[in-house]
Design brief:
Blueprint lengths: L1 H46 L4 H63 L3 H9 L4 H76 L1 H36 L11 H12 L12 E4 L2 E4 L7 E4 L1 E5 L5 E3 L4 E7 L7 E6 L2 E6 L1 E4 L6 E2 L4 E5 L9 E8 L2 E3 L10
Antiparallel strand pairs: 1-4, 2-3, 4-12, 5-11, 6-7, 6-10, 7-8, 8-12, 9-11, 12-13
Length: 399
C-alpha cells in the first residue's frame, strides 16, 4: 500500500517536471526562430544600406534575444543539475535499501533451508498442543512463504528502479554537456555581436542629435495616428449609442454584440497573432528608445517585424469598423469585436472594406515594406472601447 501511495504522490511531481521541461524547450525554440528572423532583418538592412540607427536597432534586438537564449539555457542547466543531484540521492538510498533487502532475504533463505523438509514442517504442525495452535502455525507458515515471495519481488523492483535512475542520470549528464557547449557557442556569437554593435554605436554618436530629432518626429506622427484612431472609435460609439438612445461614452451593445465581446474576452491570452510569423520589436507602453536611451517613446500597441510580403490577419471574428487613410501614413484597418477594437497599421494593400464581416485568422491586407530600410513591420493595437490594452496580455505566448 505504501509503495502505491508513494507512486501516486510521485506522478504529479514528475508530470510537473516534464511540463516545465517542455515549456523551457518551447520558449527556447521561439527564441531560436526569432534570432533566425532577426538575421534576415540584419541582412536586409545591409543590402538596402539602411541608416546607422536602423542597423543599431536591429543588432540590439539580436543581442537581446541572444542574451535571453543564454539565460534560458542556463536555467535548463540548473534544472538538470537539480535533477542529477536528486537522482544521486535516490540512487544512494536505493542501494542502501537493496543491500538490506538482500541481506534479509539471504538470512531467510538460510533459515528456510534448515527447516525446508516436509517432515520438519509436518512435525512443526503435529507438535501443536491443540487445534487452534496448529491453525496459527499453518497460517504463520503461509505468511512466511508469502513474505519471502514479497521480499524477492521488492528486490527485483528496486533493482529495476535503480537501473532506471542510473540511465536517467547518464542521459541528464549528456544533456547538460550538450547545453554547456550550446551556451559557449551562443556566448561567442553574443561577444561578436557586441563588437559589431560597439562600432555602430560609435558611428551613431556622431549624429545622435539628428537621430534624436528623427525619433521624435516619428513619435509625433505616431501620436497623431493614435489620436485619429481614438476619434474614429469615439465617433463609432456615438453613432451606435444614438440609435440605442444612450449617452454612454462606451458601446451600448446588442445581445449579439455582447456575446461576441464576451467570447473575445474569454480568449484573453489565447488570441492568435495578427501575423503568422513575426518578432516583437517594440512593446506596449512608455519606454526608453532601445538605442538612444535619452529619448522616450510611447506605444499604444506592439510592433511586429515580419518577412516581406507578409499578410496581416484578424485575431478574432468581427466587423470592419473603418479603413483609415491618414495623410502621410499607410492604410490602417479597424475591426470591431463587440466593445473591443483591434487596429492593424502600416498596410500596403487592403483586402477588406468598411462593414465587412471577418473571421478569425482571415487575411485583411498586406504589410508595407520600407524600400529604404528593407523593414516590413505591422503595428498592432487593441482597445476596450477607447482604452488601449496591452496586446502581450491578450495574444498567445507574447510575454
Amino acid at each position: 500500500m505504501r509503495k502505491w501511495l508513494w507512486i501516486l504522490m510521485l506522478v504529479p511531481i514528475l508530470s510537473f517536471a516534464q511540463d516545465k521541461k517542455a515549456a523551457l524547450e518551447a520558449q527556447k525554440k521561439r527564441l531560436q526562430d526569432e534570432i533566425v528572423q532577426i538575421n534576415v532583418l540584419i541582412k536586409s538592412s545591409v543590402e538596402k544600406r539602411a541608416d546607422v540607427l536602423t542597423k543599431v536597432e536591429t543588432v540590439q534586438l539580436k543581442m537581446d534575444r541572444q542574451d535571453a537564449l543564454i539565460r534560458l539555457t542556463n536555467r535548463q542547466i540548473n534544472r538538470l543539475n537539480q535533477e542529477i543531484t536528486l537522482n544521486l540521492r535516490n540512487i544512494e538510498q536505493l542501494r542502501t535499501e537493496l543491500e538490506q533487502l538482500k541481506k534479509d532475504y539471504a538470512d531467510m533463505v538460510i533459515a528456510a533451508r534448515k527447516n525446508q523438509s516436509i517432515q520438519n514442517r509436518l512435525m512443526f504442525l503435529l507438535s501443536s498442543e491443540n487445534f487452534w495452535q496448529a491453525y496459527k502455525r499453518m497460517t504463520y507458515m503461509k505468511q512466511y512463504a508469502a513474505y519471502r515471495k514479497q521480499q524477492g519481488e521488492q528486490i527485483a523492483t528496486k533493482t529495476q528502479t535503480l537501473q532506471q535512475y542510473t540511465n536517467d542520470m547518464i542521459a541528464q549528464r549528456k544533456d547538460k554537456e550538450r547545453l554547456i557547449l550550446e551556451n559557449r557557442e551562443a556566448q561567442k556569437s553574443l561577444d561578436a555581436i557586441r563588437v559589431q554593435q560597439s562600432s555602430l554605436v560609435q558611428q551613431l554618436k556622431k549624429r545622435e542629435k539628428n537621430y534624436t530629432a528623427q525619433i521624435k518626429k516619428k513619435q509625433q506622427q505616431q501620436e497623431a495616428l493614435d489620436r485619429e484612431i481614438n476619434r474614429l472609435i469615439r465617433e463609432a460609439i456615438a453613432a451606435s449609442n444614438k440609435k440605442a438612445g444612450s449617452k454612454s461614452t462606451n458601446f451600448v451593445l446588442t445581445p449579439e454584440a455582447k456575446a461576441l465581446a464576451a467570447s473575445f474576452a474569454s480568449n484573453k491570452g489565447r488570441l492568435p497573432w495578427p501575423v503568422e510569423k513575426g518578432i516583437v520589436t517594440q512593446r506596449f507602453g512608455t519606454q526608453p528608445h532601445p538605442v538612444v536611451r535619452t529619448t522616450t517613446i510611447k506605444s499604444n500597441g506592439v510592433t511586429l517585424s515580419v518577412p516581406k510580403n507578409t499578410e496581416a490577419r484578424s485575431v478574432f471574428e468581427g466587423k470592419v469598423l473603418n479603413i483609415v487613410q491618414f495623410k502621410g501614413s499607410n492604410p490602417i484597418v479597424l475591426i470591431q469585436h463587440g466593445n473591443y477594437i483591434t487596429s492593424y497599421k502600416n498596410l500596403s494593400r487592403v483586402y477588406v472594406k468598411k462593414g465587412d464581416a471577418v473571421a478569425a485568422k482571415q487575411a485583411i491586407g498586406q504589410i508595407f515594406t520600407n524600400t529604404d530600410t528593407g523593414k516590413t513591420a505591422l503595428q498592432f493595437s487593441l482597445f476596450q472601447n477607447t482604452t488601449p490594452q496591452n496586446p502581450a496580455l491578450w495574444l498567445y505566448q507574447m510575454n
